[in-house]
Specification:
Largest sheet of chain B: 2 strands, antiparallel
Distance between the termini of chain B: 52 Å
Structural class of chain A: mainly alpha
Distance between the termini of chain A: 29 Å
Order of helices and strands of chain B: HHHHHEEHHHHHHH
CATH architecture of chain A: Orthogonal Bundle
Oligomer: heterodimer
Number of domains of chain B: 1
Shape of chain A: globular
CATH topology of chain A: ABC transporter involved in vitamin B12 uptake, BtuC
Shape of chain B: globular
Strand content of chain A: under 5%
Radius of gyration of chain A: 19 Å
Radius of gyration of chain B: 19 Å
Structural class of chain B: mainly alpha
Strand order of the largest sheet of chain B: 1-2
CATH class of chain A: Mainly Alpha
CATH topology of chain B: ABC transporter involved in vitamin B12 uptake, BtuC
Helix content of chain A: over 70%
Number of helices of chain B: 12
Strand order of the largest sheet of chain A: 1-4
Number of domains of chain A: 1
Chain lengths: ~325, ~300
């Protein structure tokens, strides 16, 4: 791409430039912000990666109530590497998380791609609850308590305890930026644009010669890979995995919540949604431990009623107005 | 094999308990096409209200047998108040949206109600075991069962029987089935669909609360009980076929037997055996066992 066409592209759609800019800023300020802020940002990035996958599915009209399945597989794959094989390499752990999620999604995707609407939601819920039920009773994996893990090296190079947090954060930022950019390119592609068409009318898409089944299958596997990535990163950031906060349906419900809040308007939206969610949760859990879910529920209702496109549609509307 | 009678009896007891909850869920879906996640909260609300009032009743030294009446009235009151509030106050603005959006709406409602329950009743577990212990035990050979469990079976048979009679034998029931088949056509024929929706949701809410109220004496009532029950109820109605009364009964029996077999033979698989069955049924019959065939809409 020549320089002038690049600048024209940025003016038309600044998303990719924004992603690159955000990544540079994040990596730059990372070493200087306090530890709590670094942890907070890491969690936001991880949640954003998972929710990016949810919004990818939502573009075809599918809402998964069991994305915790892949999130959990990613987290446990990362945890098991450290816990059982003493392979405490961050890059290896995340790769294992993505790989396990993709393998399972390739199999389940054959099935899931046939389901729509609430049946997709219910079947995904069933699969994630199967995993939850398995883990709760598997004492080798710590049953309901789960087990702890720690990161010691990055791509073979040892990291000192001081830099572990930053390392996880930096990898989360790079992977978040990479997946956002990749999704942006994918959405602009022929295959990516089919999602809206499928949502509107599957039969017409089939008549035009595209395979709805294949597209949904592909999207399903990508979403699973992102969930596995987020899960593995989250496990290494928290240093602990357990079934309740990964595979149980209430965790999948949180992903659904953030996805609805964010909307499908932009690849950046999931990260903003995750940021807002995490900020509210951190603040509200301290101040109002027993009413914060109520605030979440009310917000979700308001978004569904007045902002069907998610929070992102507010920016969109303003941009069009000017 | 010696355990077989116990497996079957336990399974049926469990099934009759779950049926009362699942039948409300399937009724609401059948008529309104809403898969109501908040059903779990209404169940918890019924349990909390019943346990609190039964606790008051017993603490003030009234006749212990009266506590059954208190449980029942508390459940009906919860349904009568919360049902219309939710339907008129929220759901009616959402009619005509996609089914999955309605799931999300009721999920939001579920989150709100979960915290509302914590605010009203506190977070400490409530225990009211008197109604459970009062009826004593029944010995069948070497098996001992609390009589209260048999009351549950009777209750679920009464609920299921009433529903079946109302739906097939009465004028109102036939109107309801007309609405299920074709909402627009029944509107054109002069059926007040608005009122049918209101009544359906209220009855569904009452059933959820009733399920909670009769469960309250058998367990400690605590936060999170709604979240646990709603996924089980989902499994049952999905197995049976959403919106089918017979399906809910069959689903409850299947889930009950599977779960009790798991408990007796292979306790480690108890929790996920139900979801394995749910996934298998969805794989083989995507709309559930009893779902009516549907014309493809273009």
């Amino acid at each position: 791409m020549t320089q002038s066409s690049w600048s024209a592209h940025v003016r038309r759609d600044p998303t990719l430039a924004l992603v690159a800019g955000a990544l540079i800023v994040l990596l730059g300020v990372g070493p200087f912000v306090p530890q709590w802020a670094l942890s907070f940002l890491t969690v936001v990035l991880n949640l954003g990666i998972v929710v990016s996958g949810m919004t990818l599915l939502m573009r075809t009209g599918l809402v998964s109530f069991g994305q915790g399945l892949y999130y959990c597989l990613g987290a446990y794959a990362a945890g098991a590497l450290d816990h059982f094989y003493a392979a405490s390499d961050l890059l290896l752990m995340v790769a294992a998380g993505v790989l396990l999620a993709v393998l399972v999604a390739l199999v389940l995707g054959l099935l899931m791609a046939k389901y729509r609407d609430i049946f997709f939601a219910m079947l995904s819920l069933a699969f994630s609850m199967i995993l939850y039920g398995l883990l709760v009773k598997t004492s080798a994996l710590g049953s309901t308590d789960g087990f702890g893990l720690s990161v010691k090296t990055f791509a073979g190079a040892p990291i000192t305890a001081h830099w572990v947090r930053y390392c996880i954060f930096a990898l989360a930022a790079v992977l978040a930026a990479a997946s956002a950019a990749a999704l942006q390119v994918y959405y602009e592609s022929h295959l990516g644009r089919l999602a809206w068409a499928i949502r509107d009318n599957e039969l017409r898409v089939e008549y035009m010669g595209a395979s709805v089944y294949r597209v949904i299958q592909l999207n399903y596997v990508i979403a699973a890979a992102l969930a596995g990535m987020g899960g593995a990163l989250m496990a290494s950031a928290i240093g602990h995995v357990d079934p309740e906060t990964t595979a149980n349906w209430t965790t999948s419900g949180e992903f659904v919540f953030i996805a609805i809040l964010s909307g499908t308007g932009s690849v950046l939206a999931p990260f903003l949604g995750a940021g807002l969610f995490e900020a509210v949760r951190t603040y509200a859990l301290e101040r109002f431990p027993n009413t914060w879910q109520m605030a979440l529920g009310a917000t979700m209702l308001l978004v569904i009623m007045f902002l069907p496109g998610g929070l992102w549609s507010m920016f969109r509307r303003r941009a069009r107005g000017t | 094999m010696q355990q077989l009678p116990a497996v079957i009896i336990d399974g049926l007891l469990y099934a009759s308990w779950m049926f009362i909850i699942a039948v409300g869920l399937t009724l609401i879906y059948g008529v309104m096409k809403i898969l109501n996640v908040a059903h779990g909260s209404l169940y918890a609300l019924g349990a909390y209200t019943a346990a609190t009032f039964a606790g008051f009743w017993l603490a003030h030294g009234h006749a212990a047998f009266g506590s059954y009446g208190v449980l029942l009235i508390a459940a009906l009151a919860v349904g009568l108040i919360s049902g219309p509030l939710i339907e008129r106050g929220l759901l009616r603005f959402m009619y005509g949206r996609e089914e999955i959006v309605l799931v999300l709406v009721t999920y939001a409602l579920f989150l709100i109600l979960e915290d509302l329950i914590k605010l009203v009743f506190g977070v400490d577990p409530i225990l009211v075991a008197a109604p459970y212990a009062l009826l004593g035990n029944l010995e069948m050979g070497h098996l001992i069962y609390p009589v209260y469990s048999l009351v549950l079976v009777a209750a679920s048979i009464v609920v299921g029987g009433c529903m079946a009679v109302v739906l097939t034998r009465t004028r109102r029931g036939k109107m309801l089935r007309a609405v299920i088949h074709d909402q627009e056509m029944s509107m054109a024929l002069g059926i007040n669909v608005r009122r049918v929706y209101l009544v359906t949701f209220t009855v569904g809410a009452m059933l959820a609360a009733l399920g909670g109220a009769i469960t309250a004496p058998t367990t400690s009532v605590q936060p999170g009980m709604g979240a646990e029950v709603i996924v089980l109820a989902f499994a049952i109605v999905v197995i049976g076929g959403l919106g089918s009364l017979g399906g809910a009964a069959l689903g409850a029996v299947i889930v009950g037997l599977v779960r009790s077999a798991a408990v007796h033979y292979q306790p480690e698989v108890e929790l996920f055996s139900v979801y394995v069955v749910m996934a298998l049924v969805l794989i083989v019959r995507p709309k559930g066992l009893f779902a009516a065939p549907e014309a493809r809409k273009i």
